[in-house]
Amino acid sequence: MLRNLPKKYLVSSDENLPKYVIPFNGRKLFVVQSVDRDPRGFAWEHVSVSLKNRVPTYEEMNFIKQLAWDPEDEVIHFFPPASEHVNFHEYCLHLWRPIGVKLPWQEDCSFGDASE
User: Fold this and answer.
1) Is the pLDDT of residue 113 over 60?
2) Which of 37, 69, 89, 96 is least buried, going by the fewest C-beta atoms within 10 A?
3) Are the CB atoms for 11 and 28 separated by under 8 Å?
4) Alpha carbon distance 5, 57 (integer Å)
5) 72: helix, coil or strand?
6) Are 96 and 103 in contact (CB under 8 A)?
7) What's CA 97's distance to the chain center, in Å?
8) Would you say 29 and 90 are in contact if contact means Cβ atoms under 8 Å apart?
9) Is the pTM of the predicted complex or chain greater than 0.85?
10) Backbone phi, then psi, for 17, in 5-degree steps?
């Protein structure tokens, strides 16, 4: 379940859309948190992460994932088809988690032996 990010980093909240500036390793991560519905009506927890001059790194995205969700929550970064791609910010990445829906691989298969 999507957790509220620390209030000390909250800079504004327009139309129930909290916006944060979160420090990490000397950088300022700009973060927006929301719950959105897709065209089929499915609800998704959503966090966007951006910087002013580059795309966030894996470490920065993972840091925000750990702040925003429980460690065992599965969260996705999508690469949409080029024809559906919308880019409002050149240096922004998004994390998504469906609400109340199991992902196809969560019941039937695994990604490998966790003991390896």
Assistant:
1) no
2) 37
3) no
4) 19
5) coil
6) no
7) 8
8) no
9) no
10) -120, 90
